[in-house]
Amino acid sequence: MMNRKNTILKSVALAGALTATGAVATTAHADTVATSTAATSATTTDQQLANMQSAHAATESAAAASNAAVMSEATTSANSQIADLNNQIQTRQASDAAMQQASQASAIASVNQAATSATAAENASYSQAVASQTAANDAALKSAQSTIVTEQQKNQETAQENADYQNQAGNLDSEHNATLNKLDQALKNNTDGTNAAIQKEISRQKADEQGAINQAAKNLDSQISAADTEVGKAQQTVNADQDVVNAKDAANKAANQAVKNAQDKLSDAQDALKKAEANQPVVNTIDAPAEYINVWKTYYETKKPGTWTLSQQQFPELYARLQKAEQEAKKNNVYKEDPAAKQIKVTLNDNGTLSHDDVIFATQYAANLINPIREAVGTNPYKITNASIDVAQDVENGYRKDNWNAWTNAHDLKLLDQVANNWGTDIVTESWAGDGSFGSLSYDGDNNTWTHNYTNLTRDDLQRGIYNAVEALLFECAKGNSSNGHTTDLLGVRIGKNAKSSSVIGSDLLGVGFDYGKGNEAANQFNVGGFHFNSISDATSPHIQYLASHNYVIKAANPNSKVNQPGYKDQIAIPSANHDDQIKQLQAAVATDTQALNDAKSKASTTASELKSAQDKLASDQAKLSQAQKRVTELRTNKENTLKAMATDPMQSPAIKNLQAKLAQARVDHDNGVKAEEAQYAAKTKDLKTKHEAKLAAIAAQPTSLAELQSQLQAKLDTLKAQHEAKLKQITDDANAKIEKIKNQKVADPEIDKLNAQIAQIKSDLAKKQQELDNNYQALKAKNQAEYDALAKKLHESDKAVVNGNSNQYKTADGKTVVMAGGKTNSHSGNLSAMQNGETGDVTTVKVEPGTSSVEMTREAYKAQQAKLPQTGNSNSTALIALGAIASMFGFGLVAKKKESYSFRRNNEV
């Protein structure tokens, strides 16, 4: 296997909720750290699968070795060809370099010759220009007497020019203003005439429109009157239907009352029976309806990665079914007092936490409540180790040390992370439920506050608190305000049954703690506590073993971790619930009352059916009435809309729009004329000013002395010199640039390009061969996997039938046939509601046919044996749960390879 970089992304997610009943509130926080489906090693019945895997491994190994040999030979050949082509390229490059050097020398000589000629021409041109300018200067000096003027003459010429300029500018302004006034008057004349034509057209259109509206209103009123008549007829039919429904409803209510009376009578008989059983020990269970189990099975077996909750938004159909089932469960599950447990005191430490022995008892009691539901859903039951108990105690002690108020602050993230590090495990998962029934309460009417008291408590109080906490966490969406983060945590369904996951989850080993203190307060309740349901990963779980075997760095799988040390990893037994023998026969009165109840229900069913038929007819006729009423409404609306549509805006008519377009065009013509005039005026003004400034400059430039004239003449010679030097520099710069370009030119050799193309093709062919061999190898692996999956499915079809009770026999690995024989036992394994109602449970045992060693096994034991077959799962999710006044938070842990990083998510952050 190729080395891959490993990282662990780890975070703790939290959830909190607060519900209040009367003065006592129960709040639950659920950690959304991913959970897994554990899988055990295959039983001996899977020997055929092991043999097939060995054969597949041999074929895959042979294919890999063959591929390596083929690629080695192909690579050697390719390298030899590439080396030969590179030698040819080097030879041509040396030849090209020699040719390039000779070509560059000739080109540079040509450039230098051209530069020399250009320089000579410029020098000659400059000499001629200097000679001409010198002659002109000499002539100017000879006629200096006529050129030189006085300052007085210059001032006179300047004054005359300024006067001429002002006069011309004034004339230009007058012409400009006259043109603008003419354009404005033309616009006014066009606007006035067109507006008058618009008003005349509007008056004509309004007169024609009103006549058409009056006629249309008359026609529509006639249709509305006919439709009103149909509404009256339909209303009479509905009234008659309602009378029938009322009569049927009365009969149905009477039948339902008869059912209630029969139920009350049966309840009385059953209460009498319970009193006769008063000496039997009390057994509390949490009975989940079949629909509740089916919903979670469906979620667990079909969910895809990307969520760890069953929210209403993501799973609307499952959520609706679950909510209804949980509402039923809430009604059916009520804690029953345990007189025997009242005789055992609960010990609370000075810091407000449970003692070590009570933590063990609390964990065992919680596991007995939860595990039957986990098994029914298809997930592995919780186990308990010394490490999981000590982790729970470290958590409850840490909350008190930090004076942490979980009611308002949710989970203590830093503490949970610290405990995980101290124990050498990846993460400590926590679900938290606020105490609503463990301690006693005292009420202060003056301040409207409740204070919790945790003295003189018994195991019965502790059982009640745990029972109600587990019930709140398992049936949290009954009121429709939860995403079930608590439930997915306790049921272990966050990773789907048939998915792979790189997440580290902690839903294997359970520890239940409790803490309270003065710092804990919420909703006018003080000194209140809460239960911590903490869990960690099991090093022997299939999911942790899967991650470890795929090169992920997993602390929980490290034998040197504290949680895996001798003593700490030892399991603590979870004693079975104390189920006494159920009463085998009901009293005759109970049987009679049961039959009476059934008869009353049958009659109620009939009256309900008749009521339903009457209600259906009423609904049908009401629908017809609604249609008739809708028709009237539609006609009235149609009248309103029709008349509105006819009352058109004259301003939108083509005639008006044409006149308005004429107005707009007049404005455009005016604006364009103004714009053209302004442009022409600006151009004339600019030209006049330019000429004026040129004349002033010429007057000012006239010399007033011989020295000034000589200076002006010398300046012309200096300008010629500067221009000459600039041209010479440009000739030199151009020549240097051309020479540099010649030196940088590269020789184009098509033969070298062809050789490089051959090298690229050889490399491409080698890569394609590698890809082809890889594809063939992956196809072989896929074929082997398909054969393995098909055999696995075939081998375990009979197992599923036996587990589900659909078959009474199966084959063992040595070819023996095992027959499931019916029998009675005083132990119930699945139908908890049946136990509560006093029914006897049938449990099937297994016996080997004559001639073999005798074996007896309950069907539930057989299920437990089959549960050891491999299972895998995967899921990811974050969610926010808010119940009452307490905000909740989730966290999660993701495993990548060789590297650890941490992130925390609060609220709805992703």
Give me the number of helical elements.
18
Oligomeric grouping of the chains: single chain
Which runs of at least 5 residues are low in confidence (pLDDT < 50)?
1-27, 29-42, 823-849, 851-856, 869-910
Helix content: 55-70%
- End-to-end distance: 33 Å
Describe the main β-sheet briefly. 5 strands, antiparallel
| Rg over C-alpha atoms, rounded to the nearest angstrom | 50 Å
| Biggest β-sheet: strands ordered side by side in the sheet | 2-3-4-10-7
> Structural class given helices, strands, pairing?
alpha+beta
Total beta-strand segments: 15
What's the shape?
extended
- Work out the strand percent: 5-15%
Average pLDDT rating: 82
Give structural notes.
- The chain has 910 residues and is an alpha+beta fold.
- It is built from 18 helices and 15 strands.
- The strands form four sheets. The protein has a five-stranded antiparallel beta sheet, with helices on both faces. It has a four-stranded mixed beta sheet with strand order 5-6-9-8, with no helix packed on it.
- α3 crosses α14 (654-701) and α6 runs parallel beside α10 (459-474).
- It is extended and about 155 Å long.
- It starts with 7 loop residues before the first strand and ends in an 8-residue tail after the last strand.
- Residues 1-25 form the signal peptide.
- Keywords: Cell wall, Coiled coil, Membrane, Peptidoglycan-anchor, Secreted, Signal, Transmembrane, Transmembrane helix.
